[in-house]
UniProtKB/TrEMBL annotation:
SMART domains: PTPc (SM00194), PTPc_motif (SM00404). It is found in: Cytoplasm. Pfam families: Y_phosphatase. Keywords: Cytoplasm, Hydrolase, Phosphoprotein, Protein phosphatase. One of its GO terms (cellular component) is cytoplasm. The lineage of its organism: Eukaryota, Viridiplantae, Streptophyta, Embryophyta, Tracheophyta. This is protein-tyrosine-phosphatase.
Length: 398
């Protein structure tokens, strides 16, 4: 068991949950109320709206009854929305998806599998234990994460045994002005379920530290990430406050960050329209921030509803650029969400290999260590996928 570095203090290992950790937690931790008034349109007038325009183009096609598919707008085969929907409109709920006849059959077949498996608790427990036996061990991980262990980068890691692999780590293109070392390192990894853009790609990262705020926003802007999915709450141990929640606007090195709109969703997460401007270039990047604070560390939510509502919204996001997802270490809750999200998308594309969550998690773990951290999270993936398939069929009249 290894010690951990969290803001230069010791913390409980994210890879070794305490025996007393609850299976679930009460949904009492709410998105923090803003200490400022947010006004104005969420869309930047100075750039960064390209993905918004693509999403709105898809919405217009759907609303007009056009026979165009998502493939015509970089969706590569996803189901077509039944009504116009802009995923960046934080005040609008995602509409039901209009499945094709083939997708209805795919969902029925997949549902039969996931419902059956989700009831086989002993078998799933054994399955997860086999997965744990295949995980990358500490000595091997050290050989695969040489950049993360460099002396110049050690203080940029929230946990000393959750390090990105050299071959899948996100590289910053230009060094942040506040970095003494001036290198390209951030504790973040590219994670993808397929080799093409048919399924959403992700950047899985740790909860930012104060010393890495500028690096975080640099990563978001350089990779043109349309969405940040935050699966934890802001606090000084798990995730420092990288958003200007006190007054709605803040400066992080060379980046000015402004919260343009802020709303609480009925599904217990917070949606924020955020605008990030680079002071050096003047470029503005708009990003949707989704905060879901009620997913307990090492545990699972009492319901799959909120997680699935996030997935429903993100289904409408164009695929060109990766989605940022993080919790505290960027492996447990983050790994579970990515597994759920990518599995649903692959099922709708007719990829029956998505039935095999062992292989899905193994592929994620080959890109970032420790993805899907606990047995509870693994079983939650089965539940959430089954629940979403039932919801998709129900909304299609089946």
């Amino acid at each position: 068991r290894f010690s951990f570095l969290v803001n230069l203090t010791t913390a409980t290992s994210p890879t070794s949950p305490p025996p007393s950790a609850p299976a679930t937690a009460s949904l009492s931790k709410r998105c923090r109320e803003p200490a400022f008034a947010v006004t104005g349109n969420a869309t930047s007038s100075r750039g960064g709206g390209g993905l918004r325009e693509k999403a709105r183009a898809v919405a217009r096609l759907a609303g007009s009854g056009s026979r165009h598919t998502h493939a015509d707008a970089q969706y590569s085969g996803g189901p077509v929305p039944g009504v116009a929907f802009d995923p960046f409109d934080i005040e609008a709920d995602p509409p039901p998806l209009a499945l094709t006849h083939e997708q209805i059959k795919l969902c029925k077949d997949a549902l039969a599998h996931f419902e059956r498996r989700s009831k086989q608790l002993d078998a799933l427990s054994d399955e997860f234990q086999r997965l744990q036996g295949m995980r990358t061990m500490h000595p091997e991980m050290m050989k695969m994460s040489t950049v993360a262990r460099d002396a110049a980068n050690r203080e940029k890691n929230r946990y000393i045994d959750v390090l990105p692999f050299d071959d899948t780590r996100v590289r910053l293109k230009s060094s942040a002005t506040s970095q003494i070392s001036g290198n390209d390192y951030i504790n973040a990894s590219f994670v993808k379920a397929t080799e093409d853009n048919s399924v959403a790609r992700f950047i899985s990262t740790q909860g930012p530290l104060v010393r890495t705020f500028e690096d975080f926003w640099e990563m978001v802007c350089e990779n043109q990430c349309p969405v940040i999915v935050m699966l934890t709450q802001f606090d000084s141990v798990k995730c420092d406050e990288y958003l200007p929640l006190q007054n709605g606007q803040g400066t992080y090195g060379k980046y000015n960050v402004k919260i343009r709109k802020d709303t609480r969703d009925k599904h217990q997460f917070c949606l924020r329209a955020v605008e990030v401007q680079c002071n050096e270039s003047g470029k503005v990047h708009s990003v949707l921030h989704i905060e879901y604070p009620d997913w307990p560390d090492h545990g699972v939510p009492t319901s799959t509803d909120a997680v699935r509502q996030i997935q429903k919204r993100l289904h409408h996001i164009p695929r060109e650029h990766p989605i940022v997802a993080h919790c505290s270490a960027g492996i447990g809750r983050t790994g579970a969400y990515i597994t759920i999200h990518s599995s649903i998308e692959r099922i709708l594309l007719g990829d029956t290999s998505s039935y095999d969550l062992v292989e899905t998690v193994k592929k994620s773990r080959s890109q970032r260590t420790g993805m899907v951290q606990t047995e509870q999270q693994y079983m939650f993936c089965y539940r959430a996928i089954a629940d979403e398939l039932k919801d998709l069929l129900s909304s299609s009249g089946h």
